[in-house]
Amino acid sequence: MLQYNIERFINNIKIILNENAAKEGCISSIGELEKEAGISIGFISRVNQKKTSRFTIEQADKIAELLEIPLLDLMYSDLDYAPLNKSMKTIKLFVDRLIKDTQDGDLFWCHNYNKFLENELSANAYKTFVDDPEMHEDFNISSEGWELRYKTEQFGDIQLGFNDYYFKVSLDGEHTIYLIESKDNNANLIVLKSFDAEDLIAYKIAEKSSLPESTLDLLFESVRIRSMDVDVSYNGHTFIDNYLGIHHFPQNY
What is the pLDDT of residues 162-211, one digit of tens each? Predict the structure, then answer.
């Protein structure tokens, strides 16, 4: 199970309980929730105070079931996050779908070092020479003195670490999603590339984020895990299925 923020988890529980107070027949108190979930009275408050305890996966799953919310949303989403505009609501639905498809193994993500982004995203990623020998020991500066940057309209040029990773997945043969990291600069970018355009569709830069940070963190964490998967070709799957006597093919193919 992925790590999660216990304060966010309990805060999300409280938000749902408060909303349920105005609904008939819904669980609307901590005590009622604990009773229905089969956990000791006061346990949620004790966990919230200590911050070091954790719910078991069975307890968390039961709580999510009783509150009628997907467990991942209860654990990772910011339910009190400021309302998104219509455009960003669509982007969040898209990112949520990427998370689900990634966790289900329906998307195959490739990864490589950021230093190759200049070739991949030539419209906005570029290298520039830094004429300062003392800076060449910086993680973000290559040994030859080159710095990698990504142009954005809102935040200007963002410095990217050469040895950080980016991840990419082709969605339909015409559009590719890029997840770009810059750990030293605390930046996560999601770029949609088509044949004739590059669009920055979501970001987390320093203290600013276009989507709930938990949503972006979950996407990047899910992709890191699945990027270790082996991409088996259609012919490979055909042979394996025939060998096992199973006559079906993955939906991706």
Answer: 878 899 999 988 899 999 988 776 789 999 999 888 999 999 887 788 88
Q: Rounded distance, CA 210 to CA 231, Å?
A: 32
| 105-132 per-position pLDDT tens digit | 888 898 888 888 989 998 999 988 876 6
Strands (E) in 81-213, as ranges, are 110-113, 125-129, 146-152, 156-160, 165-170, 176-182, 187-193, 198-205, 208-209
Strand order in the sheet with 165-170: 110-113, 165-170, 176-182, 187-193, 198-205, 208-209
- Domains with residue ranges and CATH for the chain: 6-76 (1.10.260.40), 86-226 (no CATH)
Q: Which residues contact 92 (CB under 8 A, 6 or more apart)?
A: 84, 211, 212, 215
- The 3-state DSSP class for residue 116 equals helix
Calculate the alpha carbon distances from 229 to 79, 84, 108, 137, 175 in Å: 32, 34, 8, 33, 21
Residue 133 carries which side chain, given as an amino acid letter? P
Q: Say which DSSP state 251 is in.
A: T
CA distance 158 to 187: 8
DSSP string over 14-81: HHHHHHHTTSTTS--SHHHHHHHHT--TTHHHHHHHHSS----HHHHHHHHHHHTS-HHHHHH--TTS
Residues 6+ apart with CB under 8 A from 28: 17, 18, 20, 21
